[in-house]
Amino acid sequence: MLGRGAARALGALRGVRGGAPPARSLGLSRRLLSFEKVLDKDHSLPKPCWGKDMRRLFDQFTKKCEDGSWIQLASYEQISAQRSQDFSAFIHAYFPSASEVINKEKLSQAQLFTRGFEDGMGFEYVMFYNKAEKRIVCVFQGGPHLQGMPGFFHGGATATIIDATVGMNAIVSGGIVMTANLNINFKSPIPLCSTVLINSQLDKIEGRKLFVSCKVQSIDGKILYTEATSLFIMLEPKKKKYDLKEAVLNPLPA
Ligand SMILES: CCCCCCCCCCCCCCCC(=O)SCCNC(=O)CCNC(=O)[C@H](O)C(C)(C)COP(=O)(O)OP(=O)(O)OC[C@H]1O[C@@H](n2cnc3c(N)ncnc32)[C@H](O)[C@@H]1OP(=O)(O)O
């Protein structure tokens, strides 16, 4: 196991990241990222299964991070064991009746839906956040297990990655939120295994309501595949306040 100091330093490396992927550029990531189980694997760093478009866009956006205007969001299957517990406790306190029917034994197998696929088969994505512009751009390469109509993505898979992107935009602005409404217009089918860009924008906040819209486009911007608008509601903490925004921006414990 890694000592506390090293783990803290690694946490800083893996949290909000501007510039090139720091752990990787320091030559540390392979060794350090494998010190714990797969839960500590940052899925938003380049992998062999990424195609050249995904890799090129990752490099382009990473370059934009150098002046601090954009930051790359790390992505784990879970935030951290401790933070997951705190988060779960908060959510379960908010929805006590739902908590009663949750199978507690199965909870140990829980993982983030979009990160539950074998590398390259499902959702490969990395998100970049521009605070000043209230934007999150998601570079998404969908794998062959996301097929709907032959040769194209399933609409539910497209809806999922849209929800993840607009949801992350709402989280970094509002903390713990839930999707209340998601409207999607599918304009053109997305070819299976292609890489696309999802551009999301926080349009406004009214009290507990956050309105986020997005467009899914081809990487050259010529094809508009999908448009969506969404409404997220900030949960009102009834018991303990839990800072999900801080947790997604700094996924490992301090
Ligand atoms: C384990 C560790 C891993 C952690 C890793 C985390 C990081 C990785 C994150 C990735 C990002 C994923 C993002 C996915 C996010 C989901 O997919 S969430 C799952 C899908 N959503 C749900 O299940 C939500 C179900 N709905 C609900 O629980 C409740 O309806 C809500 C949304 C919490 C709202 O309930 P409420 O808090 O009681 O609020 P309520 O008083 O009803 O409404 C508040 C206001 O909103 C309005 N409103 C509510 N709903 C609507 C609606 N549908 N339409 C219009 N207006 C509405 C109300 O009219 C009201 O307006 P005002 O009267 O104030 O003007």
Automatic annotation (TrEMBL):
Protein name as it appears in the record: Acyl-coenzyme A thioesterase THEM4
Reaction catalysed by this enzyme: (5Z,8Z,11Z,14Z)-eicosatetraenoyl-CoA + H2O = (5Z,8Z,11Z,14Z)-eicosatetraenoate + CoA + H(+); (9Z)-octadecenoyl-CoA + H2O = (9Z)-octadecenoate + CoA + H(+); tetradecanoyl-CoA + H2O = tetradecanoate + CoA + H(+); octanoyl-CoA + H2O = octanoate + CoA + H(+)
Keywords in alphabetical order, please. Answer: Apoptosis, Cell membrane, Cell projection, Cytoplasm, Fatty acid metabolism, Hydrolase, Lipid metabolism, Membrane, Mitochondrion, Mitochondrion inner membrane, Transit peptide
Superkingdom: Eukaryota
> Per UniProt, what is the membrane topology?
Peripheral membrane protein
What CDD domains does this protein's entry cite? PaaI_thioesterase
Instruction: Tell where it localizes.
Output: Cell projection, Ruffle membrane; Cytoplasm; Mitochondrion inner membrane; Mitochondrion intermembrane space
Q: Which residues form the Thioesterase domain?
A: 151-222
Whose protein is this, by species? Pipistrellus nathusii
Which Pfam families does the UniProt entry name for this protein?
A: 4HBT (PF03061)
Among its keywords, does the record have Cell membrane? yes
Q: Which family does it belong to?
A: Belongs to the THEM4/THEM5 thioesterase family.
* Its EC number(s): 3.1.2.2
Task: Using the UniProt record, name the top-level EC class of this enzyme in a single word.
Answer: hydrolase
| Stored InterPro entries | HotDog_dom_sf, THEM4/THEM5_acyl-CoA_thioest, Thioestr_dom
